[in-house]
Design brief:
This protein has about 575 residues and is an alpha/beta fold. It folds into 3 domains: about 140 residues, PAS domain (Beta-Lactamase, 2-Layer Sandwich), CATH 3.30.450.20; about 160 residues, Alpha-Beta Plaits (2-Layer Sandwich), CATH 3.30.70; about 240 residues, TIM Barrel (Alpha-Beta Barrel). About 45% of the residues lie in helices and about 25% in strands. The chain contains 24 helices and 22 strands. The strands form 4 sheets. It has an 8-stranded mixed β-barrel, surrounded by 4 helices. Strands 2-1-5-4-3 form a 5-stranded antiparallel beta sheet. The radius of gyration is 40 Å and the shape is elongated. The N and C termini lie far apart (about 110 Å). Bound molecules: guanosine-5'-monophosphate (2 copies) and manganese (II) ion.
Amino acid sequence: MGFGNLASAWSAGLRALRGGPAASETLAQVVNDSFSGMVVIDSGGIVIAASRIACDLLNEGRPLDGQRAQRVLPRDMHLAVGQVLAETTPATETPLAIAVVHHGSETDDRLVLQFAVTASVVGTSERVACLNFWDVTERRRAEERLSFLATHDPLTGSLSRTGFCNAINERFETERGRAEGLAVFAIDLARFKPVNDALGHAHGDILLKQVVSRLRATGAQFVARLGGHAFAVAHPGLSQAEAAQFCEIVQDRLVAPYQLGPHRAIVGADIGISHSAVSGFDPDQLLSHADMALNVARAMAGKGYAAFSPEMDENLRARQELETEMQQAMERGEISLMFQPQASLDDGRIIGVEALMRWMHPDLGAVSPDRFIPIAEETGKIVELGRWILEAACREVATWPGELKLSVNISPIQFELIDVVAEVKEALTRSGLPAHRLDVEITEGIFVSNVRATIEALQKLRNLGVGIALDDFGTGYSSLGYLGRLPIDKIKIDQSFVKKLPGDQQSGVIIRAVMMLSEALNKIVIAEGIETADQAWMLKMMGCKVGQGYHFGRPRTATEMRASLVERAAPSLPASA
Ligand code: G
Ligand code: G
Ligand code: MN
């Protein structure tokens, strides 16, 4: 039954109340039996009738009849009753409102009552107020639980992302609040998964809770768990320099050992900082900037935290733009194939070519592979690009006169994601290029993950007759110790060493050392980035057999390359008439 119906029934009944003892008794019983709380108060503020439920909820079951409303009703109800009685219009009705009755100190000891008051004029002039109410404590509790769940992390009790953003919005609404400034820290626990895996999720949960306690203990104002092992903390009133100091405190506390029941565990913590002075007060923006800084921090060896700077955003935007553009680059035919000659240092003869990718974008112009290969690797696009260049290069070189060798770069990601051996076999079969004319160029990055599988794949390639060249030697980990154990045939000395010849002594020493080592290990050395005759001569004197660089030729298209080979192969032929 709606409140309005009940109220008008009551008003009608009230008129009957004056009608005689029988009617009055009937009505008193109706009121008494009402399943809602109902209290009738006369113009003098005295209760003249009350339902049983009203007595239970407001007076611990004792009768309310004859009591002063002011004494027995919660303040909000009593005020509404007073207001209705003071009005002069014949019938008024207050909007639904909430009154809270506490009968203890705990939040659980409260009653939440929803109520409304209607006025009735009985007989000629007497005005009475009828208070109607319902117990909505349970409903309120459920609503509060839902809202808690929406704004908090159920596991740790810290704020959720929504709660965190709400809290920041609320705190920095006013100009005065803003004057203080705000630093936001995005925190990622490193090596949490092994703890979870080894000790079980229950212990992982304890660790996450302890992380929240530790974060709270730093004095940060808002602490949130954004999901998994990602957390965020907001601290008002810190300058940008102070934010970096605070970051070190947070990090120190988080990396201290955790006691998880009988176990001890240690995790790492990478942190990205954003500050309102740079990013403004929009919580989403602050979090997203802190996240970008976190990515930078993660990639950095060493201190493991970084503060956001606007260039990070620009870099990311440019990267994302390239990423989307790259999706279509192949279909639009923007990726092309170039060949750079490799020459014998003894006589300058061209003995091979390295296949290199080029991306000609209609608006951006030539995009360097140094920029787009890392993105293609991240997105997995390198698989498609790599397959294409391997096929196209083999097919092209197989048609050339002579026995030139072809070198193709294969990214570590290709080894990780696909069966490189099968793809190489297929490219060789389809093109008809003999296996011994193909070299695969790899980088040291290939030996970072899944070393055994990688070495196996390389050995299979060698069994086919394909050569393996280690590219960019000297720029990576370059542990000379492992060189002997790897299935490689050639080492390409990085151009950064060659470039400094002949002036730089140190580069000379390093190149000589690599030459000696390669000789002992029976590997061929290719020097990259030879730009002058002097450099070519020096390298030849050091014992290097093969060179690559602008001195012997820049990367050229297939057509240009083929033309120069035909010219070279038949220099003395008379021109046909
Ligand atoms: O020629 P250039 O500046 O374009 O090459 C830059 C880098 O991109 C070099 O390290 C080269 O090895 C790499 N690169 C060029 N083409 C390919 C390719 O087809 N596959 C892979 N994985 N890397 C390539
Ligand atoms: O990383 P990788 O060595 O595979 O790539 C070779 C890269 O070096 C290509 O981008 C090529 O254009 C570039 N390169 C080749 N020879 C020279 C050179 O003599 N000088 C300079 N500066 N770059 C070169
Ligand atoms: Mn290369």
